[in-house]
């Protein structure tokens, strides 16, 4: 029965981005339905066997902040509180229907993290769960690259017209770039965990034997999968998606060169291969120059995202504690917009600003502390632990978190349920790898 729930969690990771990145109400509702159904099954199975239904205490740094956020959203849609605080509506939320939708998403994420902590509880399951994240990224990369190389072909998902930038099953290229970067980070971590701690023999026949062992092992398949994902990442033409990923990889790699406990002998060579082979050689073939051109052409004069941030700050100042209501940026921001932009902004294109506007500063700081704590735990695991898998996955988790911290400054990736589900999984892996026994 435990295996059934575990594989259901892995299947949800793979399924989540397929219906338009779950960035439609019906798509996110399908994920919520499966999570609620799975959690109900977990309760019934545990009670029938008289087992504990709660995960261990390692889950507290993730479960508690998410639970508090869900309770906060309930407070925002409770009638009558808005009148007490002299709000224009009886609720704290400017748009209770959208806040209710965000509440369901938050509850689903909380219960999903609960299940991950409960069922991903051995070294083998951590490995398989990480592989499912990697597989999800590979499927998205293959699909996006295939469509990108067949420009006249509409998307298989609802025949959506395809653009020159890769989007996969997502609608927005930057969200695909973010999703691929998170999967890439975990994939690189898993590959690092497969490297040998011992050096190769100096004898030629032993070196030849080692080379063939690599070629005939799963390592070569992992490496090819990562190359495919990097190709798709470059094809998104996402400026911050590409630059944030490679900066995060460089930063965590530099940390590992100095502090990684029992470093694999080929760690430096593997990391360098990502920058030399993938970024330069593969990137040259598949258009990294176009990403570079977009970066060079970027200017504040041509961008309106900074104006959205500027106009959203007064909303934070007006409602710094309770916020305007989860999910309400879509309907409340036009009241603060000083003038027309080049397009319609239903999100702030800055997760820090949007969370502060909708949830208020206390909850935003609480969620930020949760993320930074998980990053600290990942770095600590790389330094303190000796189990290669836990160290490698923690490397990937740390790179994924740094990437998300950077990418969230210019985009709204965490508003996508598929990316939020993946990111919560990564935060959970941070704590799982730190506490599981050898």
UniProtKB/TrEMBL annotation:
InterPro entries, A to Z: O-antigen_ligase-rel_domated (IPR007016), WaaL-like (IPR051533)
Compartments, as annotated in UniProt: Membrane
A Pfam family recorded for this sequence: Wzy_C
Keyword match Transmembrane helix: yes
Domain O-antigen ligase-related, first and last residues per copy: 225-367
Main location: membrane
Membrane-topology annotation of the record: Multi-pass membrane protein
Transmembrane residue ranges: 31-47, 59-78, 98-118, 125-146, 179-199, 220-237, 243-260, 267-288, 359-377, 389-406, 418-436
Entry's Gene Ontology molecular function annotations: ligase activity
Protein name: O-antigen ligase family protein
Organism: Colwellia echini
